[in-house]
TrEMBL record:
Signal peptide: 1-24
InterPro entries named in the record: Cyt_c-like_dom (IPR009056), Cyt_c-like_dom_sf (IPR036909), Cytochrome_c_Oxidase_Subunit (IPR050597)
Domain of life: Bacteria
Name used for this protein in its record: Cytochrome c family protein
Species in which this protein is naturally found: Salinisphaera dokdonensis CL-ES53
Domain Cytochrome c: 34-115
Record keywords: Electron transport, Heme, Iron, Metal-binding, Signal, Transport
Pfam family, one: Cytochrom_C
Length: 116
């Protein structure tokens, strides 16, 4: 019973991101800085876990970190690792899999300007 609930939740998350546009990054803007305003728009789905003080995930049980104020370079590296499968976490992989490099830089720019 619990396993089917988790599968349904994961499917819902994947569907939400499959329907979100993933914009291709051109060679011209490979070194462009992130746009915090665009990052705020892309971050809306992340708030459900990362924006709740003291939130713990139900399965597997762990504390979900608050990431406001995090270093942009770290956020970029972490999201790319989740997206590319180098960092293992099924929910984060599902969340990051639809993000382009520019989306990731935008989210990092937004998070880095927030107060922790």
């Amino acid at each position: 019973m619990m396993q089917s609930w988790r599968k349904a939740l994961l499917a819902l998350i994947c569907c939400a991101f499959a329907s979100a546009p993933a914009f291709a990054q051109s060679e011209d803007n490979a070194d462009a800085p992130g746009d915090a305003a665009a990052g705020k728009e892309r971050f809306y789905t992340c708030v459900g876990c990362h924006g709740i003080p003291g939130y713990s995930n139900a399965y597997p049980t762990y504390h979900v970190p608050r990431i406001a104020g995090q270093n942009a370079t770290y956020v970029v590296a972490a999201l790319k690792a989740y997206r590319d499968g180098a960092r293992k976490h099924s929910t984060m992989h599902a969340q990051a899999s639809s993000l382009s490099d520019q989306d990731i830089k935008d989210i990092a720019a937004y998070l880095s300007q927030l107060k922790p």
